[in-house]
Amino acid sequence: xxxNRREEWVRQLRRxxxxxxxxxxxxxxxxxxxxxxxxxxxxxxxxxAFGRLLCGIAPxxxxxxxxxDEGALRRRYAELTLEAVAAAVDPAxxxxxxxxxxxxKPNLQLLVDTxxxxxxxxxxxxxxxxxxxxxxxxxxxxxxxRSRVITPGPNNWLLFSAMVExxxxxMGFPADSTxxxxxxxxxxxxxxxxxxxxxxxxxxxxxxxxxxxQPMMLDVVETIAGDAExxxxxxxxxxxxxxxYAAIQERLIAPDGSFPAVGRSIAYRCGAFQALAAIxxxxxxxEELHPSAVREALSAVIARTLDAPGTRDxxxxxxxxxxGHQPGLGEVYISTGSLYLASTAFLPLGLPESDEFWxxxxxxxxxxxxxxxxxxxxxxxxxxx
Length: 385
Description:
A two-stranded antiparallel ribbon has the order 1-2. The two termini are 37 Å apart. The chain is mainly alpha-helical and 385 residues long. It contains 15 helices and two strands.
């Protein structure tokens, strides 16, 4: 069962990735990708699909090739991804995914998905950054730097600017440490307790702690943790909080793989559980969560959100919705490209097949146990974080 789970995850991830990466490799993404949205998003939706897909597939690529069939697949997809990156960052490419070089006011959304692309680079430094030619690395850095003209709002957007700088630092280019420091200090101030941050000063009951805040915050602070004791101490706090949030996320997954459809951007589907997936990838799950149970829980969410009829169009592109095609669930900023944040549920594919997450026998997750009558210790808030 465990190996079958991994094969199913790889199949699902490839099914999501192929339309995007193949079109970019051929430099026809802007021609081939449909754009479903409530507002005109043609100037940013392709960057959304690219950056968000890579954000989720990166750890799998980083695992590298080996003698297995899957290892050969990882080699092929790493090469394909680098071809896609080359098409995306070259201003002479018809699929250049940023604003035209002479555009004085680029779409603000481009900062968001430049950051998701940057997060992919941070998650796969050997296979993505290390696989680039010097010319491709320079073009990639140029694209990241262009995002500095966009001023982030006083909310989770601060982390988008910070993540871009973290990637530049990983790539060996000068980075603006002030952008990283400001984003981290502000979010530390916005911590609300029990593993949850506000999206800015106010709390919002949605999944943005998972979509953006906690995964990006942890990877940014780890990039600079060695610079000063302040960042090392913050890294420890951020990790403790994220482990608690992962425990909460695991309990949100119902026995049938559904979860509360609350808050904005619910059309990101299984991407709502990026934080849980990221903690599993790090082997930092709370003691009460067994990796194989988290595997089964995430598998249920993936199936529930990606296997429903209507999820994809006839050419395999994702469509707006949470369980099937539900365009009414898409806010004005949601478009086809936005939906590829669903890839982040697959982060644990960055663990080798021999890891306990994949090799241990299937085990029920919390809600399955509770709603079948099993007696479990009560959950409780954790405030000393």
